[in-house]
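FW: tagging you since you asked about this chain on Friday. Here's the raw sequence from the shared folder, copied in full. Didn't touch anything.
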Amino acid sequence: MHCAKNAKLDACDGAEGTYSSKTDDSPMSKSVLDRRFCIAPMIDWSDTHARFFWRLLSANALLYTEMITTGALLRGDTERFLRFDPSEHPVALQLGGSNPADLARCAKLAAQWQYDEVNLNCGCPSDRVQNGAFGACLMAQPALVADCIKAMQDACSLPVTVKHRIGIDDLDSYDHMARFVETIAAIGCTTFIAHARKAWLKGLSPKENRDLPPLRYAEVYRLKQEFPELTIVINGGIHTLDECEEHLRHVDGVMLGRAAYHDPYLLGDVDHRLFGAATSKPNRSEIIERLIPYIEREMQRGATLHHITRHVLGLYQREPGARSFRRILSEGAPRKGATLEVLHRAIAAVEARNLVAEI
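HL: got it, structure written out here
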């Protein structure tokens, strides 16, 4: 087994959320979560600032934190890792670990901090987690995963879910994945998020594992067919809402990662198209206007402008002025002492280009 212990897997980057620790479970956990559309846990990307921004675009998407290791959570700054803005609900905490007792303690923390779900990562192929014997390597140990999930379930009343690959290395048959799911479902886990690529733990980098192993969507569809009582969410290589609608003909939910991050404005159509909400798509300027008070608040608490604006670089994707918007933010926001004036300049550049385009 290869996977990395002291991984720098922070849940947020200089974030100052508004939640404080509580001992009651999340209000959302009392009802069934709608997992029709989810935004994936993405290390270094899906921090609390990104999730606040995404929530401005979709009220219904289920958001996931970055993967947080049990060691970081239990021996580090718990508040720094777990705080988030209440507007992020529904939001799930993803954990990385393989010790049932440690995972149970972290699941209890997830409930205390009022997350809506706690998820165990069994899909990350990074060398940084392989030495710690968790992530994708856990697919070779379904009995251990079942013990971990049971410990987490006993520690809290939140839904406890699993995110996994369709296989690893030579353990990549459909039957192996089905046995993995069946073993864990036997102890009462009902939700599985399947990345429809296998992971090569020997020979491929994490980036290559996101792109090179072929997508095998049919195997995830088959999983739903053979386990109709389970909630099956599909992940991997999904870029558009048209593709989401096609997948939803076969499974219960879809999860987008990089596509949602790099082209966030597509989230503005999620509520109407996938959840049937009678809402109109917010325009980009409205999103920025609603984001500005949050930026002001967070900067007062110690965050820098760049901590937040790095997540909005793709907002004007394919629009006139998009390149200027990205350039101004990329160059100006990381500078020491950068203020909202940088964001206002970036917006002005977009508006000027749009005015020229209209003329």
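FW: The mean pLDDT is 89.
HL: agreed, and The first helix runs from residue 48 to 57.
FW: great, closing this out.
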